[in-house]
Amino acid sequence: MIFADRLDAGRRLAAALAGYRGRKPVVLAIPRGAVPMAAIVADALDGDLDVVLVHKLCSRWNPEYAIGALDETGWSFVSDASEDDGAWLKDEKTHRLAELRRRRALYSPQQSMADLKGRVVIIVDDGLATGATMRAALHSVRAQAPEWLICAVPVAAPESLAEIRGDADETVCLSAPAGFQAVGQFYRSFEQVEDEEVVDCLRSRRERNGVPAGSGG
């Protein structure tokens, strides 16, 4: 399955999640790429939109390869024991946590995250490669006691999808091809989403919902 772009993937994902319309789900995007997709899903399901901030921990030898991930609380996991060398990994975690705090201040200035307790929560990403960031996102949200926790992605590496299933109450994935190499290979257009687009998307959603800039909630 090939998607034209993230918006196309978002529309197809929204159709697959249509059964949650009427349950007022909270749709959480993993920034930055998933934010435009999650906005489409939230609109289609009449849900709330927010972000869940997690960051992959990168290999010393290949910055594109995730060896684990961490969330805003500082909780982390490392999936590759060979990379778990104290000083270097500590610096990597410190650097990534600072980036998450910068993003929270940028994306949600003076805004508190939606209360997830007892809610249907759908975490959206544009795809699963190693699945590290999704695993951290699911852990972060699970700690907030949602009623039902869903992982929703257009495409995933089959082995990563299998590992994630145990962390979510439900997994919605449109395609898990055997020839998976990278998320971008399944999009005809896969341009980077910048911080400005994320900020604009979240701000417009809040304004539509009548949340004044600078207020909590």
Automatic annotation (TrEMBL):
- The name of this protein is Phosphoribosyltransferase
> What is the organism field in this record?
Zoogloea ramigera
Identify the InterPro entries for this entry.
Answer: PRTase-like (IPR029057), PRTase_dom (IPR000836)
Ribonucleoprotein found in the keyword field = no
GO molecular-function term, one example from the UniProt record? glycosyltransferase activity
Is Cytoplasm set as a keyword in this record? no
Q: Where is the Phosphoribosyltransferase domain?
A: 7-175
| Keyword tags | Glycosyltransferase, Transferase
